[in-house]
Amino acid sequence: MSAMRHLLDLCKRRGFLFQSAEIHGGLRGAYDYGPLGVELKRNVSQEWWNSMVYQRSDVVGIDTAIITPPAVLKTSGHVDQFTDEMVDSRLSKDRFRPDKAPELKVDDQGRIPITAPDKYMAKLWENEIRTQFARGALITRKGKEILLSVERLEKDRIILKEDPTSSPIEESTLRIPYHGYVDPNSNSPFLTESRPFNLMFKTYLDPIDPTDKIITTTLEAQKSSSDLTTTRQLVDKTLYPSLTYLRPETAQGVFINYMTVQRSHPHLKIPFGIAQIGKSFRNEIRLEHAIFRTPEFEQMELEFFVAPWQAQDQFTAWRKSRMDWWKIYARNHDRIRERAHAEDELAHYSKGCIDVEYLFPWGWGEVEGIANRGDFDLSRHSEATGIKLQYTDAILMQERQAKEKATGEKETRVEVLEKERFTPHVVESSCGLNRAMLAFMLDALEVVDEQGRVVPLDEVNETNTNNSSKGIRIIMKLHPRLAPVKVAVMPLISNNKDLVDVCTSISNRLRQELQVNVALETQSTTIGKRYYRMDEIGTPWCVTVDYDTLKDQTVTIRDRDTGAQRRVSSEEVLKIVQDGMKLKPQSS
């Protein structure tokens, strides 16, 4: 059982993550965050906000609208260029991105194994291949696998072997175009040509249903014998006045508010930043790995405005700062890396970009990008609106004017004047909140046996982890500041009123003093099972109230990661938790 399977099982069982609208059959790629999931997500975003805004004097926050007018996204290039290449599998009809698809697999007998969902579909697919895609090819079928015999592989095509029992055929039917990738699910090379697909969701601000307008416009176009292209243009023109988009990123809301923020906060001097956490929407071709890639997601973004001559140094500084942040909260630093973009990966305006990647069960995946965007964004919006989105350094200007007055000579050097007034460059940090949450959970996930030894996840089955009496149990070793529940307070005997009253008093005090989520655990199960439940959801400390507490006001406090227990005064619990929540790197 893989780490991802373990995690998703735990998420549903313990209330981190649910399939959205599950009682109505669910919605592909949509998830609801349960009571524990919403706490974890909030903690991750709060730690990011603390680091990026509260611990700095040069960054302020903003919260911009999700619904975005077309002019903004036309200017930014999203309307014309925010696309992925898309390919259809001609057998399964699945759609996928070719840049994320695997290469062709060939077995040791020189055959291409195409895997269908079941035996029935394998039979249908075999018939399609024989009659439509590769007539006369040597094909066999075993169970739900269709095996295509290969004559040879060339750079841009696959040459299949001819079935000696088939009727004479043209050689071209045995040549299959190959562009270096296949259907990720089936290994099928029978694909359509790739084509661009815009990732933005359109919507319309209009009391009249746009469907009615489409029908009316189409019928009018048909009367004038308009072709399909002309009809599409007429429909687009009719709908354009009410057209809007769900934003594909939070960054554009920051750029169009650059001047407004600067004017309302005159203390902000270059370099300064504007931070935002919010939802974005992308019509992804392929939704995968639970909350890793979904059409609705949350971003934590910082746009840091700098002078052109500061940009590279600031880019370098932010790279280090962001990697340091990840290492504070992650236990396994070897699962986090920096990957610099190659030249052919960079946007045409980009001066440099690196991804922070985490080693997920399926491979390395991006969780954050840090980019030197140059002056592209502000320059584009400035050109489109006629509003100069520039920064004026008043001190440098005053110094020049004073010097001119003293010497009587007017400064004309371009490099001097450009330092006074310029279009800021932008260093961007863009972090996926949902991906960060997934990475931290996988990083924290650990399975141990009854002796406390770590058990490899692929050696543990679902039955074992659902039954702690078998000695196998899960511990979620989240950083205490990320943990959904910081402390669980529980009576040794759950139905003893005196013990429950003391637990209530301790938990209330912890909530009031620390302003954190504290669980009052009064379930009628053994204390061991309650401990194990808290281990699973990542609670760093469990406080147990017993009969001795009534005599001397001492309690037992248990550490999640070590299982160690010690007897302390109930008054000491507050300080222990406070000290444990201080920012420091996790130990593995």
Automatic annotation (TrEMBL):
<keyword id="KW-0547">Nucleotide-binding</keyword>
<dbReference type="GO" id="GO:0006426">
    <property type="term" value="P:glycyl-tRNA aminoacylation"/>
</dbReference>
<keyword id="KW-0436">Ligase</keyword>
<dbReference type="InterPro" id="IPR027031">
    <property type="entry name" value="Gly-tRNA_synthase/POLG2"/>
</dbReference>
<dbReference type="GO" id="GO:0005524">
    <property type="term" value="F:ATP binding"/>
</dbReference>
<dbReference type="InterPro" id="IPR036621">
    <property type="entry name" value="Anticodon-bd_dom_sf"/>
</dbReference>
<dbReference type="Pfam" id="PF03129">
    <property type="entry name" value="HGTP_anticodon"/>
</dbReference>
<dbReference type="InterPro" id="IPR002314">
    <property type="entry name" value="aa-tRNA-synt_IIb"/>
</dbReference>
<feature type="domain" description="Aminoacyl-transfer RNA synthetases class-II family profile">
    <location>
        <begin position="245"/>
        <end position="456"/>
    </location>
</feature>
<protein>
    <recommendedName>
        <fullName>Aminoacyl-transfer RNA synthetases class-II family profile domain-containing protein</fullName>
    </recommendedName>
</protein>
<dbReference type="Pfam" id="PF00587">
    <property type="entry name" value="tRNA-synt_2b"/>
</dbReference>
<dbReference type="InterPro" id="IPR006195">
    <property type="entry name" value="aa-tRNA-synth_II"/>
</dbReference>
<keyword id="KW-0067">ATP-binding</keyword>
<dbReference type="GO" id="GO:0004820">
    <property type="term" value="F:glycine-tRNA ligase activity"/>
</dbReference>
<dbReference type="GO" id="GO:0005737">
    <property type="term" value="C:cytoplasm"/>
</dbReference>
<dbReference type="InterPro" id="IPR004154">
    <property type="entry name" value="Anticodon-bd"/>
</dbReference>
<keyword id="KW-0030">Aminoacyl-tRNA synthetase</keyword>
<dbReference type="InterPro" id="IPR045864">
    <property type="entry name" value="aa-tRNA-synth_II/BPL/LPL"/>
</dbReference>
